Amino acid sequence: MNNLLQEVENSKAEINNFSTTDKNPAEVFRIQFLGSKGLIKSLMGEMKNVPAENRREMGQVLNDLKLFAENKYEELKKTSDNGQETTGSEVDLSLPGEALPLGSRHPISIVRNKIISIFQRLGFAVAEGPEIEDDWHNFTALNLPENHPARDMQDTFYVSQNPDWMLRTHTSSVQVREMKKGKLPIRIICPGRVYRNETISARAHCFFHQVEGLYIASDVSFADLKQTLYFFVQEMFGNTIKVRFRPSYFPFTEPSAEMDITCLICGGTGCNVCKHTGWVEILGCGMVHPKVLENCGIDSNKYSGFAFGMGIERITMLKYQIKDLRLFSENDLRFLKQFTSAV
């Protein structure tokens, strides 16, 4: 114990007489005396060699030493701060600041905003809804009752069951919510993120982004749908793009169709992206099924409408000729910096 007391006295003298030529003496002092490998820590470790009956007394001595060192450290910090203030000539505040790197918009955001802008010029308003939906809004109201085989095409991630709550598989649920309000006519687009239980690959992902459209009024025809989509394609891809409609099946529309455009990768000559057909499907569409209107409290004898839906990723891949869907969610700056500036 006497040896430890002598070391404490020597340490106190060393702390009191501390000096250094370093520009930051407070930090040097902290490391030397108060750091995890400093002198105070080392002396504290010697407590195990002190007899039990003397440990309380020795502990008080070491605590006093630590307090003495901390006070010295605070004095050095004040001296350092005052020294920096008096040597302000080392920092020239008139010099220009370092330029911050300019960010860029995500390609999905660029195309999403472009799609919204096109349809807003046609009088479509933007409607949004929750990403977690109940079974009725996501399936049943859209003519997809329980055990309907078409549900298999939209397997998703369930949050809970009985009652079923899930991550929505399409933004059609937003259309249902708008139709239930009963404010007719309806002319909306519904952009948002959706989810599917799919294997992640260059052409598929477990989440993606959609824009769906809905127009309900008196005497709406399939011709109105076609002209709306013709306008969209020409505004998005140019006037020279070719379009075709193919009959298809969707439970919530009748008749239904899929819309193809000339493959922008190969110019219609055939490649692996278009499966050597020269055509690429970009969206599904059709006239709103009367059962869907009735489910939402709309008189199907008085009103009709059309609906369409497209994946924003697919439109983006075609517009910028991107061949791997996974690039959109990998946050690779080398990829993201290629797109339009945020300012």
From TrEMBL:
<feature type="binding site">
    <location>
        <position position="254"/>
    </location>
    <ligand>
        <name>Mg(2+)</name>
    </ligand>
</feature>
<dbReference type="InterPro" id="IPR004529">
    <property type="entry name" value="Phe-tRNA-synth_IIc_asu"/>
</dbReference>
<dbReference type="InterPro" id="IPR010978">
    <property type="entry name" value="tRNA-bd_arm"/>
</dbReference>
<keyword id="KW-0648">Protein biosynthesis</keyword>
<keyword id="KW-0030">Aminoacyl-tRNA synthetase</keyword>
<dbReference type="GO" id="GO:0006432">
    <property type="term" value="P:phenylalanyl-tRNA aminoacylation"/>
</dbReference>
<dbReference type="GO" id="GO:0000049">
    <property type="term" value="F:tRNA binding"/>
</dbReference>
<comment type="similarity">
    <text>Belongs to the class-II aminoacyl-tRNA synthetase family. Phe-tRNA synthetase alpha subunit type 1 subfamily.</text>
</comment>
<keyword id="KW-0547">Nucleotide-binding</keyword>
<dbReference type="InterPro" id="IPR022911">
    <property type="entry name" value="Phe_tRNA_ligase_alpha1_bac"/>
</dbReference>
<comment type="subunit">
    <text>Tetramer of two alpha and two beta subunits.</text>
</comment>
<dbReference type="InterPro" id="IPR045864">
    <property type="entry name" value="aa-tRNA-synth_II/BPL/LPL"/>
</dbReference>
<dbReference type="GO" id="GO:0005524">
    <property type="term" value="F:ATP binding"/>
</dbReference>
<keyword id="KW-0460">Magnesium</keyword>
<dbReference type="Pfam" id="PF02912">
    <property type="entry name" value="Phe_tRNA-synt_N"/>
</dbReference>
<dbReference type="InterPro" id="IPR004188">
    <property type="entry name" value="Phe-tRNA_ligase_II_N"/>
</dbReference>
<keyword id="KW-0067">ATP-binding</keyword>
<keyword id="KW-0436">Ligase</keyword>
<dbReference type="InterPro" id="IPR006195">
    <property type="entry name" value="aa-tRNA-synth_II"/>
</dbReference>
<keyword id="KW-0963">Cytoplasm</keyword>
<protein>
    <recommendedName>
        <fullName>Phenylalanine--tRNA ligase alpha subunit</fullName>
        <ecNumber>6.1.1.20</ecNumber>
    </recommendedName>
</protein>
<dbReference type="GO" id="GO:0000287">
    <property type="term" value="F:magnesium ion binding"/>
</dbReference>
<dbReference type="Pfam" id="PF01409">
    <property type="entry name" value="tRNA-synt_2d"/>
</dbReference>
<feature type="domain" description="Aminoacyl-transfer RNA synthetases class-II family profile">
    <location>
        <begin position="111"/>
        <end position="338"/>
    </location>
</feature>
<dbReference type="GO" id="GO:0004826">
    <property type="term" value="F:phenylalanine-tRNA ligase activity"/>
</dbReference>
<dbReference type="InterPro" id="IPR002319">
    <property type="entry name" value="Phenylalanyl-tRNA_Synthase"/>
</dbReference>
<dbReference type="GO" id="GO:0005737">
    <property type="term" value="C:cytoplasm"/>
</dbReference>
<keyword id="KW-0479">Metal-binding</keyword>
